[in-house]
Specification:
- The complex is a heterotrimer of chains A (291), B (168) and C (665).
- Chain A has 291 residues and is of the alpha/beta class.
- Chain A has 14 helices and 7 strands.
- The longest helix of chain A has 18 residues.
- Chain B has a two-stranded antiparallel sheet.
- In chain B, a hairpin with a 5-residue loop joins β1 and β2.
- Classes of the chains: A alpha/beta (291), B mainly alpha (168), C alpha/beta (665).
C-alpha cells in the first residue's frame, strides 16, 4: 500500500493535527506515504471559474500519473474535486481535449489513470475493520461519538464517493471497531457551513453550531470528522460559535478520525497533536479514562 | 404600462457553464429550498427561485443581489432534486457568470485566488496556537517543507489567464 | 401476364405533409415512372371523398395496383384495403408509403431535401408494387371463452360484462380472495362513498355468476396457441385445504396459533397462518401459508385439522396445473406501491410513524387493525401497536412520483387520495392539524375540483406548496421536517406525529415476466402498451389480448372501471363472429429449392417449422396456424426457398435497388 500524500491547501498550512496524526497512524497499518508536493486542486475556486478548477484538478492528477502511484487525499474538498475532474472529462471529450492542451504546455499528457483514495476508504475498505480491531490496545469505551462524514464524502451523488449517500456508516463502523459507540442521528449528512465562510463568516458559523447542537441533542459526548474544513468549523470555531449564537451549550469535543484511531492503538495524545483541538477534548478523554 | 418581453428561456451562456444538469426541467417543488443549508441562515437564499428566475431569463437580477455566494455547495439539492436540475450546479454557473459580467465575488475569495496564482495554495503557512499558548508551524513540528513543484511558471501563466477578470 | 396499372395517391394529411412539401409538384414527377397510369393528391386521403377517389379511379382506369403515400400503415392500411375491396380489387395489391413519420415530420426544416426523399420512397414503392400479387385470407374458428387475469375491480367488472354477454369466463387471481386494492380502501374519492359497500356486492355477483369460473390463489404460467384459440396453463398454488369439503366456517382461522403480518393490512395488523385475505373474502375458503404454518415448517401443531368439522384440511396438498382453452385474454393485473424504502430521505421503513397512504386506508377502515381508529404507530417488543391519536399529520404528495431518481410518471391518484386522507383525519380527529405538502394539485376528473375546494375549506387542513427534502425522527418517534412554502415564502419546521406518503404506483411484481408470456409490449414505465394511445386504448400488439385498468397505465377507480368495460367489449367483439381472419403474410417453402438444412427451424420463435422427409428428401414445412409472419425464416434461408408472402425477396429487393440506384432494375 503506497500512496502519494496529497495534502491540498488547508492541511499543510493550518490543520497540522490531521497531517501529523495521519503520518503517525497510517504507517502502523503498513500504509506507505510518499511526499507529493502539489498545489491547489481548485475546489474553492470552482465558483470563480469552472474551467480553471478542472484544469487545476487535472494538473494534480497528471503529476500523479507521471509518478505512477494512487493519490491519498485526506481533504474531502480535494478528494471530491479530483474525482469530479475525472468524471467531467469522461463525460465531455471536447472539454477534455481543451484541458489537455493546457497540460501539454507544461509537459503533462495523461491524467485519467489515477486512483484517488480518502483515509476513510483506506481504513474501512482496504485496511479493514478486523485489522483495526486487532491493533486496538486502548478501546474508546464510554465515548459516544457522532460521525460527521461531511458533504463531499457522500455527495455529489452522480460520481463515486467513499460513503453511501443513503446510509453513510463507514465512519460509524470504524468507531465501533475502536470500541466507541456510534449511531445514526438526524441530519448526519448535514453541512458544516465552511464554504459560506468567505461570504458571511457569522452565518457560516451558525450553520456549524446547529450541526453541533443536533449531535448533542442526539446524546453524543464527542464527534469526529475527517475533513479539514469540517474540523475548522466544528472544532476550531466552537468558541466563536458560542459567542455568535449566544448559546453556551455549543460545546462538544471534536476529533479527527485519525486522532481517534491513533489513541485507540496506543499512540500518545501529544504525537497526535490533541492540543490543537480547541473543543473540550482533554476533559472527555480523562472522563472516560482513555488518557 | 410596460408589458413583459419574454426573451429566452435560459441564457445560453449560463447553460454552457452548467453542463449536464437541466434547469429547464424544474417544476418548482421547492424540495431544494426546504432542506437547503444556506437557506437556514439566509432566508433570501432560495435555490428554487434562482432556477425559476434563470429559466425566465432574469439572470442579471440574481447576479446583482450577490446572495448566490451564500451557497455552501453541500450538494444536498443535487442529491434530492426530483428533476435532475441540481440547483447547486446552476448556482455555481451563476457565480461563474457573475465573474464574467464583472460583479465582484466575496473579498476572501479574491484573496484566495491571488494566493493560488502566486503560491499555488489558497493561504500561506500559518502559525497556529495550541491550547498551551504555544505557536507551532511546519518547521517546529518537523514536517517536510512545502517545496515548489516543477513547471510552476507555466502553471502561474495559465492561472493568470483564467483568473484575469477577478484580479482586476 | 396481365399489364400492371398503378394509381398513386398522395395525402396532404392537412398540414402534416403538405405543410412541408408540395404534393402537386411531386405528382408531376410521378407520372413519368413505369406502369403509373394515374397520380393524384388530396387533402385527406383517408376521408370519405379520398377513399371514393381511389375506388372510382380503379374502375375508370382499370387500375390493379394502388400506392397511397400518407401516414403509417399501422394507422390506415386497413382503411385503404377496404377501399380496394369495395372496388373489387384484392386488398394486398395496396402499397403504403409513410411520407409523414418517415419524411415530413422528421425533416420539416429542409423541404427541398424532403421532397427528394418522398419521390425516392414512392419510386421504390412503384417497383415493389409491380411485384405484388393477390393473397387470400383464411377463416379460423374461435373458442367462445375468455381468461381474465387479476381479480381487482378491473377484472371483476370485465368478468361480469363478459359473462353477461354470454361468454364463459375464467377469472384467475393470485391471492386467496378477489377484491384487489379497492377492497383495502376505506372510502373512495371524490364522493367519499364506502369502498367495501360498492365493491363487495360485485364480488358476490362474480361468485354467483354461472358463467364465471373463479380460480383464485392461482397464477398463469404459460400461454400457447393463437388468438381465438389460446391454450393457457394455470398453476393453482397448494391451498392445503380441500375447498369442496370446506364450508368456510372459519373455525380453523380462529384456532390457528401462528400470527403473521397481514398483507391486506399493509403490515399494520396480523393474520393467521391459515387465513382469508380479509373477513369479506370471496371465495370464503381459507388457504394455509406454508412459510408460517407451524406444522408445515416444524412438523407440530395440526390444530386446524383437529377443529375442522368437515375434515377439509389437506396437509399433503400440492400445486395443481390446469389447462384452459380461451379465445381471448383480458389482462387486469393492477398495480403495486413503489417501495418507499428506496426514497431513503423520508425514512419509510426506518421511522415507524412514516406510513404510506395505503397504510392510512387500513388505519381508517372499520375492518382494519384499529377498527377504524387513526393512531400513531408504537413498537412494543418488536410488535406493532396502535399509539395515540395524532395531533399533527403531514401528508406528502408525489412521494416517489414525477421523480427522475424514482418513478418518472404521475400516479394520477395521489392528489385526490391525499385530500381524501386529510378528510379522514380531519373528520375523525377534529382537533388535529393536517398539513398537505403539495407541488401541483391535479384535479382533472369529474367532481375533483369541487372535492379539492371542499377539503381546502376544512378549518384544520393547511395547504403548503412545497416538498420536504428530508424527514428526521425525534426520540419519542414523532417526526421533524422542514418544508419551504412557496405560497408564503416561508420555511416551515413541522413537528408531526404521523407522516403519510402518497406513494408512487408501479406495475405489480412479476408483470415483466408475465408480459413476456403474453408477448405484449410495454411502455417506459413497465405498463402494458396499448395499440394506439388514443384510438385503441385496450388493444395490444397481440390480437385477442386486451388490457383492463391500471396495468395499461395509472388510473383511478372510475377510469379503471370504464377501461375494463371497454376491454370486455373489445374481447366480445373479437369473438362475436365466431371466427377470425388469418393474416396472409405467412411463410411458405418453394419445395424445388429447399435443401432441408433446418436453419429456418432454429430461428423460428413460434415453433412453426418442422423438417419432414418426403420421398427421401428433407423439406421444411410451415404450420400456417402457428406462423405469425415475422419473417425470421425467410431472412435466414440460405437458398431463398423460404419466402414470406407480401415480403418476398423479389418484392423487397426491387424496392431496395430502386432506392439505392434510382433506376429500374
Amino acid at each position: 500500500m503506497r500512496y502519494l500524500l496529497y495534502l491540498g491547501c488547508v492541511i499543510p498550512t493550518k490543520q497540522y493535527a490531521y497531517e501529523v496524526s495521519l503520518r503517525e497512524v497510517f504507517p502502523k497499518f503498513g500504509v506507505q506515504l510518499e511526499e507529493f508536493n502539489e498545489r491547489c486542486c481548485g475546489f474553492p475556486l470552482k465558483s470563480i471559474n469552472k474551467k480553471a478548477w478542472l484544469y487545476m484538478g487535472a494538473r494534480v492528477l497528471a503529476r500523479a500519473s507521471e509518478l505512477g502511484l494512487p493519490i491519498l487525499a485526506p481533504c474531502n474538498g480535494c478528494h471530491v474535486s479530483l474525482w469530479e475532474t475525472k468524471h467531467q472529462m469522461e463525460e465531455d471529450p471536447y472539454l477534455k481535449s481543451e484541458i489537455l492542451s493546457y497540460l501539454k504546455s507544461e509537459g503533462l499528457y495523461k491524467f485519467d489513470d489515477v486512483d484517488i483514495k480518502h483515509p476513510v476508504e483506506v481504513l474501512h475498505d482496504i485496511i479493514g475493520l478486523e485489522k483495526i480491531k486487532e491493533k486496538v490496545v486502548r478501546p474508546l469505551q464510554g465515548l459516544k461519538i457522532a460521525s460527521h462524514p461531511g458533504c463531499h464524502l457522500m455527495r455529489p451523488t452522480d460520481i463515486p464517493r467513499p460513503e453511501d449517500n443513503a446510509n453513510p456508516d463507514k465512519i460509524d463502523r470504524i468507531l465501533r471497531a475502536l470500541g466507541a459507540e456510534s449511531y445514526d442521528y438526524p441530519d448526519k449528512g448535514g453541512c458544516c457551513g465552511a464554504t459560506m465562510l468567505p461570504f458571511s463568516p457569522d452565518n457560516a458559523i451558525k450553520v456549524g453550531a446547529q450541526k453541533i447542537l443536533t449531535m448533542i441533542n442526539a446524546g453524543f459526548n464527542a464527534a469526529t470528522t475527517s475533513c479539514p474544513y469540517c474540523m475548522e468549523m466544528l472544532d476550531n470555531k466552537q468558541d466563536a460559535a458560542k459567542t455568535i449564537t449566544g448559546n453556551m451549550e455549543v460545546s462538544l469535543p471534536v476529533f479527527y478520525l485519525t486522532q481517534l484511531v491513533g489513541l485507540a492503538i496506543g499512540i500518545e495524545p501529544s504525537k497526535l497533536l490533541i492540543n490543537l483541538n480547541m473543543s473540550p477534548v482533554d476533559e472527555i478523554l480523562a472522563e472516560v479514562g482513555v488518557v | 404600462m410596460t408589458t413583459e418581453v419574454f426573451t429566452t428561456r435560459i441564457v445560453e451562456e449560463l447553460k454552457n457553464i452548467i453542463g449536464v444538469h437541466k434547469p429547464e426541467f424544474c417544476y418548482q417543488c421547492a424540495k431544494c429550498t426546504s432542506g437547503c443549508t444556506a437557506n437556514k441562515v439566509f432566508s433570501e437564499y432560495r435555490p428554487h427561485e434562482f432556477v425559476a428566475l434563470a429559466n425566465m431569463g432574469y439572470v442579471e437580477e440574481i447576479l446583482k443581489s450577490g446572495v448566490i455566494w451564500a451557497c455552501t455547495e453541500c450538494w444536498k439539492c443535487g442529491q434530492y432534486c426530483p428533476q435532475e436540475v441540481a440547483p447547486v450546479e446552476v448556482i455555481i454557473a451563476l457565480k461563474n457568470l457573475s465573474i464574467i459580467k464583472g460583479y465582484a465575488p466575496p473579498k476572501a475569495l479574491v484573496e484566495m485566488t491571488k494566493n493560488v496564482i502566486e503560491k499555488g495554495l489558497i493561504q500561506d503557512i500559518n502559525q497556529v496556537m495550541t491550547k498551551d499558548f504555544e505557536f507551532i508551524d511546519r518547521d517546529s513540528l518537523g514536517l517536510p517543507p512545502l517545496e515548489e513543484p516543477p513547471q510552476m511558471d507555466k502553471h502561474r501563466n495559465i492561472l493568470s489567464k483564467f483568473f484575469g477578470v477577478v484580479m482586476k | 401476364m396481365e399489364e400492371v396499372r398503378i394509381g398513386i395517391y398522395i395525402c396532404h394529411c392537412g398540414k402534416n405533409i403538405a405543410g412541408v412539401i408540395n404534393p402537386k409538384r411531386i405528382v408531376e414527377h410521378l407520372s413519368r415512372l413505369p406502369n403509373v397510369v394515374v397520380a393524384k393528391e388530396y387533402l385527406y386521403m383517408c376521408s370519405s371523398p379520398g377513399q371514393s377517389l381511389i375506388e372510382e379511379d380503379i374502375k375508370e382506369y382499370n387500375l390493379n395496383r394502388i400506392i397511397v403515400a400518407a401516414c403509417s400503415p399501422r394507422m390506415h392500411e386497413p382503411t385503404f384495403q377496404s377501399a380496394l375491396i369495395r372496388a373489387g380489387l384484392n386488398p394486398y395489391l395496396l402499397e403504403m408509403v409513410n411520407i409523414r413519420e418517415h419524411a415530413t415530420w422528421v425533416h420539416e426544416r429542409d423541404p427541398a431535401e424532403t421532397e427528394q426523399k418522398v419521390i425516392g420512397l414512392i419510386r421504390a414503392a412503384v417497383h415493389r408494387a409491380i411485384n405484388l400479387y393477390p393473397l387470400e385470407v383464411e377463416r379460423l374458428p374461435v373458442v367462445k371463452s375468455v381468461l381474465v387475469v387479476g381479480g381487482g375491480i378491473a377484472g371483476i367488472r370485465a368478468s361480469l360484462d363478459l359473462a353477461k354477454a354470454g361468454y364463459k369466463v375464467y377469472l384467475v387471481e393470485k391471492n386467496q380472495s378477489i377484491g384487489g386494492k379497492m377492497a383495502q380502501l376505506d372510502k373512495t374519492f371524490p364522493t367519499l362513498d364506502c369502498s367495501q359497500c360498492i365493491l363487495t356486492p360485485m364480488m358476490v355477483d362474480v361468485s354467483n355468476n354461472p358463467n364465471i369460473i373463479l380460480q383464485t390463489y392461482s397464477v398463469v404460467e404459460e400461454i400457447n396457441g393463437r388468438p381465438g384459440e389460446f391454450e393457457v396453463k394455470v398453476r393453482q398454488k397448494a391451498r392445503y385445504v380441500d375447498w369442496d369439503a370446506c364450508t368456510g366456517c372459519g373455525t380453523c382461522v380462529e384456532k390457528c396459533p401462528a400470527r403473521v403480518p397481514s398483507e391486506f393490512d399493509e403490515g399494520l395488523g396480523t393474520r393467521k397462518a391459515i387465513y382469508f385475505d380479509f373477513p369479506q373474502a370471496i371465495p370464503r375458503r381459507p388457504v394455509i401459508d406454508p412459510d408460517h404454518c407451524l406444522y408445515l415448517i416444524k412438523g407440530v401443531c395440526r390444530v386446524c385439522e383437529k377443529f375442522c368439522p368437515t375434515g377439509a384440511i389437506k396437509f399433503e396438498d400440492e400445486d395443481q396445473f390446469l389447462t384452459l382453452k380461451v379465445g381471448a385474454i383480458v389482462v387486469a393485473t393492477g398495480y403495486q406501491l413503489y417501495d418507499m424504502r428506496k426514497m431513503y430521505e423520508y425514512g419509510y421503513g426506518k421511522y415507524r410513524n412514516v406510513i404510506t397512504g395505503m397504510q392510512l386506508e387500513r388505519l381508517s377502515s372499520a375492518n382494519g387493525p384499529t377498527s377504524g381508529r387513526i393512531t400513531t404507530i408504537e413498537i412494543e417488543r418488536g410488535k406493532i401497536k396502535p399509539g395515540k391519536e395524532p395531533e399533527t399529520v403531514a401528508i406528502i404528495l408525489c412521494a416517489g412520483s414525477r421523480d427522475e431518481n424514482h418513478i418518472k410518471y404521475c400516479c394520477r391518484i395521489g392528489c385526490m387520495a391525499g385530500l381524501k386522507h386529510a378528510y379522514y383525519i380531519a373528520h375523525a380527529l377534529p382537533n388535529s392539524k393536517i398539513i398537505i405538502c403539495y407541488t401541483d394539485i391535479r384535479a382533472f376528473g369529474k367532481g375533483f375540483e369541487e372535492f379539492y375546494q371542499r377539503i381546502r375549506s376544512l378549518p384544520n387542513v393547511f395547504m403548503v406548496r412545497g416538498r420536504p427534502m428530508e424527514i428526521f425522527e425525534n426520540k419519542d418517534g414523532s417526526l421533524i421536517l422542514d418544508v419551504f412554502d412557496s405560497n408564503t415564502n416561508r420555511r416551515l419546521t413541522i413537528n408531526a406525529d404521523l407522516v403519510v406518503l402518497e406513494t408512487a404506483l408501479v406495475p405489480p411484481q412479476g408483470f415483466e415476466e408475465f408480459r413476456k408470456i403474453l408477448k405484449i409490449s410495454c411502455d417506459p414505465g413497465g405498463f402494458g402498451l396499448e395499440l394506439h394511445p388514443k384510438l385503441k386504448p385496450v388493444e395490444t400488439t397481440v390480437d385477442g389480448i386486451y388490457l383492463a385498468g391500471f396495468i395499461q397505465g395509472p388510473k383511478d377507480i372510475p377510469d379503471t372501471v370504464a377501461h375494463a368495460g371497454a376491454a370486455a367489449a373489445a374481447a366480445s367483439a373479437f369473438l362475436a363472429k365466431g371466427y377470425i381472419e388469418s393474416i396472409p403474410y405467412l411463410a411458405h417453402v418453394d419445395e424445388d429449392i429447399c435443401s432441408g438444412c433446418g436453419v429456418c427451424v432454429s430461428v423460428c420463435p413460434y415453433d412453426a417449422i418442422t423438417i419432414e422427409v418426403t420421398d427421401g428428401r428433407r423439406l421444411a414445412k410451415v404450420n400456417s396456424v402457428k406462423c405469425k409472419g415475422c419473417g425470421a425464416c425467410a431472412a435466414a434461408c440460405p437458398s431463398g426457398a423460404m419466402q414470406q408472402h407480401y415480403f418476398t425477396d423479389k418484392q423487397i429487393l426491387s424496392e431496395v435497388s430502386a432506392l439505392a440506384e434510382g433506376v429500374v432494375a
